[in-house]
Amino acid sequence: MKYFLQRLAFYLFTAWAAITLNFFIPRLIPGDPVQALVTKYQGQLSSKAIESLYVLFGLDKDASLWSEYVTYWKQLLTGDLGLSFTFFPTPVSEIISNSLPWTLLLVGITTVISFFLGTGLGILAGWRRGSWADGLLPVTTFLSSVPYFWLGIIAIYLLTGPDSFFPSSGGFDAGLVPAWDLYFIPSAIQHSLLPALTILISSVSGWILSMRNMMVTVASEDYITVAHAKGLSDRRVAMSYAARNALLPNVSGFALSLGFIVGGTLLVEIVFSYPGVGFQLFQALGASDYPLMQGIFLIITISVLVANLLADIAYLLLDPRTRKEG
């Protein structure tokens, strides 16, 4: 329990530091986003409207930096992430809530599938050296070094076209309205197949390679020899002794992968113009939309911290050495 509380305190401090940096960094960037918005509307805003925009965006010139920082925290605690410059006057929270499910479903499902599939094949390849599964190593080594977006470009070139089943861009067919019905859901699944396939092929290879190498290392340990000497079945030794200990580094990597689900496939979403958080971040960067960038960075930071905390909890369950009383 003491170990868990120490880790929790560490992550709370890290979250405070990340949010503080998230507040200061945009304010250090040169430029005036309000004047950029005035230019966008070709000077049609009155002076009072411009002053109101400074207040709305948390850039009040009469307020001190400390008061802006306190106001920023109050807004965060109430779920207010500000107004987007690009989609003004739409709130940032609304934009993120509309795009986040797309990324979570696409990247979340493929990450979980690739982890379990890659870990299972890695256990088989590491324990049964010389088998067909171990023969996959050259292919997995090559695929694990290939970026997602490069596979996406190749997939678009080879698998899309006028008569192809796979769409080359977008999240659903034009003319449809997002809804949980029999028209929208099949269209959304069809548009997500090709991006999901590119993520799955590239990521599953890394899990196979890392798990296989750990299984080979663990298989030479003394406690594996003792387990065989006790007369335990080969399957029990592989799963309960070897795989359980070899799994620890993969659990940490899996936690990080879950944390980066929100923004880890930015280039894939750009290549396929997929309406997720990564594509929204790309648009925000192009338009210098500081509130939207702040909101997305905040979501990514929190998701990474929560994923790491879950990884620590998993370590407590899998490895007794991490528990003080153990």
UniProtKB/TrEMBL annotation:
Under the heading Gene3D superfamilies, the entry gives:
MetI-like (1.10.3720.10)
Q: Which UniProt keywords apply?
A: Membrane, Transmembrane, Transmembrane helix, Transport
Q: Which GO terms describe its cellular component?
A: plasma membrane
- Superkingdom of the organism of origin: Bacteria
ABC transmembrane type-1 domain span: 100-311
Query: Where found?
Result: Cell membrane; Membrane
Pfam short name (any one): BPD_transp_1
Membrane-spanning residues where? Answer: 9-29, 102-124, 136-159, 188-209, 254-275, 295-318
According to its UniProt entry, one GO biological process term is: transmembrane transport
According to Swiss-Prot or TrEMBL, what is its membrane topology? Multi-pass membrane protein
InterPro entries hit by this protein: MetI-like, MetI-like_sf
Q: Which PANTHER family match?
A: OLIGOPEPTIDE TRANSPORT SYSTEM PERMEASE PROTEIN (PTHR43376:SF1)
Q: Which family does it belong to?
A: Belongs to the binding-protein-dependent transport system permease family.
Record's protein name? Putative ABC transporter permease protein
Q: What is the lineage of its organism?
A: Bacteria, Bacillati, Actinomycetota, Actinomycetes, Micromonosporales
